[in-house]
Amino acid sequence: GPEGRFVLKITNAAEPPEATDFQTRALRHIATRDPGLPVPRVITTRDGQAAVPLPGGHLLRVLSWVEGLPLHQAGSTPALRRSLGAMAARLTRALEGFSRPAAAHVLQWDIKQAAALRPMLPAIADAGLRDLCARCLDRFEAEIAPALRGLPWQVVHADLNPHNVLVDPDDPARVAGVLDFGDMVETPRICDLAVAASYHCDPAAPVVSLSQVAAAWHRDLPMTGAEQGLFLDLTAIRMVTTISLASWRAARYPDNAAYILRNLPASSAGLGALTLVPRDLAQTRLAAELELLT
């Protein structure tokens, strides 16, 4: 059989079988569309089964090992941001045309579900940050959510955070792999770019740093005018999501708060800096950077 290292995944019996099947089929779709994409491959049994039932109703799956260093251990540089944007676009393209009924599930991390974050806002310890998140949600409900229907939708990875993206240990500015397809959802495709970019906002140059991720995506998967118009807002909303969910969970699990809040300082600084840039100026700068970098 194939040599090397593998990942054994045991899925809890409580998880609906269609959720596991959704992931298996997505990985197979990617393998067909873009065989060179560095994501886990489904390793089947000798008779072609992707999942083996275990006693008690749990499921055993085997995936190929993807080599690389977790991105959170590498510094965010312009080159890394461009590599991330290119990989995100390539992955989104590889998922084009894939859908299953399970894709419609409700996931609180999905940007389009941001209105449901409101009850979590009181858990945000810093009053200024709490007010900023509330203002972002006001704008989301009034202007952004209604505009989402007009965007291109598809199944996306939906969680390209620095713990799920790998870089090349010999060249930490090069994204070398993507893991963890457990949060896939059908949503506006530009949300995948917004998620990826949201962790790479340099507070000293918020629009330029986000544009570096966006320009590399745009080169491989050209954004529509409407997507360009919403990208920065959706990136801010992903930061609000990270801040709200982390604060709420940390309040519920104080023993684990340090780990839960690990992305909070970066998201808070990024959101503060991005929302200080006047909206029309931010859009002009984004358009200029996309022109320059693509």
Q: Can I get a quick summary?
A:
The protein is an alpha+beta fold and 294 residues long.
Salient structural properties:
9 helices, 13% strand, four-stranded antiparallel β-sheet, three-stranded antiparallel β-sheet
Spans of at least 5 consecutive residues with low confidence: none
Q: How large a portion of the residues is in β-strands, by DSSP E?
A: 5-15%
Q: Give the biggest sheet.
A: 4 strands, antiparallel
Query: What best-fitting shape do the alpha-carbon axes yield?
Result: globular
Q: Structural class of the secondary elements?
A: alpha+beta
State the share of residues found in helices, binned by percent. Answer: 40-55%
Count the helices. How many?
Answer: 9
Q: How do the SSEs run, as a string of H and E?
A: EHEEEEHHEEEEHHHHHH
Mean pLDDT over all positions: 93
- End-to-end Cα distance, whole Å, is 43 Å
Number of strands: 9
Radius of gyration: 19 Å
Describe the protein's topology.
Layout: E1 6-11, H1 17-33, E2 42-43, E3 52-53, E4 59-64, E5 69-70, H2 78-95, H3 127-148, E6 153-156, E7 165-168, E8 171-178, E9 185-188, H4 190-198, H5 206-220, H6 225-252, H7 257-260, H8 264-276, H9 279-293
Antiparallel strand pairs: 1-4, 2-4, 3-4, 5-7, 6-9, 7-8
Helix pairs in contact: 1-2, 2-4, 2-5, 3-6, 4-5, 4-6, 5-9, 6-8
What this model shows, in words?
With 294 residues, this protein is an alpha+beta fold. The protein is built from 9 helices and 9 strands. The protein has helices at 17-33, 78-95, 127-148, 190-198, 206-220, 225-252, 257-260, 264-276, 279-293; strands spanning 6-11, 42-43, 52-53, 59-64, 69-70, 153-156, 165-168, 171-178, 185-188. The strands form 3 sheets. Strands 1, 2, 3 and 4 form a 4-stranded antiparallel sheet that branches. Strands 5-7-8 form a 3-stranded antiparallel sheet. Helix 2 (78-95) runs antiparallel to helix 4, helix 2 (78-95) packs across helix 5 and helix 5 packs across helix 9 (279-293). It starts with 5 loop residues before the first strand and ends with a helix.
